[in-house]
Amino acid sequence: MNLDTTGDMPPKSVATTRAQASAYAWVVFALMFCLMLSDYMSRQALNALFPILKVQWQMSDTHLGSISSVVPFTVGVLTLPFSIIADRWGRAKSIGLMVALWSVATLGCAIASNYHEMFVARLFVGIGEAAYGSVGIAILLNIFPKHMRSSIAGGFTSAAAFGSVLGVSLSGLVATHFGWRWSMGVMAIFGFVLFIIYCCVVTDKKLERAHPVDAGPVAHGYAKLTPRALLAGIFPSRSVFCAYLGSALQVFIQGTLFVWLPSYLNRYWGMSVSKAALTAAGLVLVSGVGQFLCGVITDRFSGGSSLKRWNMAIVYCFALGILLAIAFRLPQGTLQLAVLASAVFFLASSFGTCSPIIAGATSPAIHGSAFATLTLFNNILGLAAGPFLTGAAADVMGLQAALHWLPVLAILPFTVFLIGRRYGIAEASRD
């Protein structure tokens, strides 16, 4: 692996004139962004309803954590096999099927009458959403020029934060005025509308025609890979493994805060369900803005260098840990909220650094599977483990005490990023 370029720089014939994205590529980006909004609105809307369900169904924090964590856990387990199917069957067609399934499952959440029915409905939400993130980003990175990868990856994945904002805030408002079932129903309707638009606009043939000159070869021949060759392609080096792992450990913190902030504000700040949901949504919105801007900043200062992307990941994670430590030591009030907002700005920064590192080190033919592996790590070790383990800890020590451990946990991704950078330098010296 070339540490300075990781295969990201255009060939000399086009190096002096950077390729520009087509109008169709931006239309696809807008649709994929909206679908990611729907994905996370359906996923996170339930978090704002925790205070209601806890009383109405007499649920413990462990049970609440489980109906939240079952979605990312299912996504993590199924993302790789579903992405392999999508790479072979057609990425555009596969995404259409995914959207239809998670929208139907979200409607199932609206009519659930007890914990077990809700758990099953949430399970199917996870099945529908399993490969969307990995297949979606694989599509986008193959229709945009290489020099835009961090910005596109950060922009696309920032929709997760914006979707969480819309899901949590809208869910809390709808539940207050019309009941919690309508909260989930609105999310389902939004998904169905996007499904119809997507099917009319995006096809695999149109995506292939939108492939830019400097994005490398069109992804063909995937089905010829043996399982051993596929595994070697997904994990081409130790530094890439560190990118997967470091991202997941940072997402652990992100997933925990996204799920438990509404309950934290409701219990310890005395906010109503709707106000807690709106406040938490505001913090998640800050995270989404930070996710996008961190990607843009990384593109600006990395110049296509993998080493500089590692440096940016380390700086972002360090800032996150320090600001979280300060925030949770402050008394409740405006200052604590302001520092917490500064911390969550860096919460999802790893998407804009790790995604292009992985893209530059893997073949375009297996980008779907490579990003599925990143999704697997992020969901199993991050989005699933974080909320569930925090819920279990909250049953023992209280939610506030459990959240105070998050700054300590930030040491883990910081350390992995340092190790990944060291491996990257060593690997480059051998090339």
Tell me what the structure shows.
With 431 residues, this protein is mostly helical. It has one domain: Growth Hormone, Chain: A, CATH 1.20.1250.20. Helices cover 79% and strands 0% of the residues. It is built from 20 helices and no strands. It starts with 11 loop residues before the first helix and ends with a helix. Mean pLDDT is 85; it is low at 1-16.
Comma- or semicolon-separated keywords:
membrane; 79% helix; mainly alpha; globular; MFS_trans_sf; Growth Hormone, Chain: A; 431 residues
List the helices and strands and how they pair.
Blueprint: H1 12-15, H2 23-44, H3 50-56, H4 61-89, H5 91-111, H6 115-129, H7 132-141, H8 149-178, H9 180-201, H10 204-209, H11 227-234, H12 238-268, H13 273-302, H14 306-327, H15 334-344, H16 350-361, H17 367-397, H18 399-403, H19 406-409, H20 411-430
SS class: mainly alpha
* Overall residue-averaged pLDDT value: 85
Strand percentage lies at: under 5%
Instruction: Figure out the total of helices.
Output: 20
Architecture (CATH level 2) name: Up-down Bundle
Q: Sketch the topology as an H/E string, one letter per element.
A: HHHHHHHHHHHHHHHHHHHH
Q: How many domain regions?
A: 1
Fraction of residues in helix = over 70%
Membrane topology: Multi-pass membrane protein
InterPro entries: MFS, MFS_dom, MFS_spinster-like, MFS_trans_sf
Pfam families: MFS_1
GO molecular function: transmembrane transporter activity
Structure at a glance:
The chain has 20 helices and no strands. It has helices at residues 12-15, 23-44, 50-56, 61-89, 91-111, 115-129, 132-141, 149-178, 180-201, 204-209, 227-234, 238-268, 273-302, 306-327, 334-344, 350-361, 367-397, 399-403, 406-409, 411-430. Helix 7 (132-141) runs antiparallel to helix 8 and helix 7 packs antiparallel against helix 17.
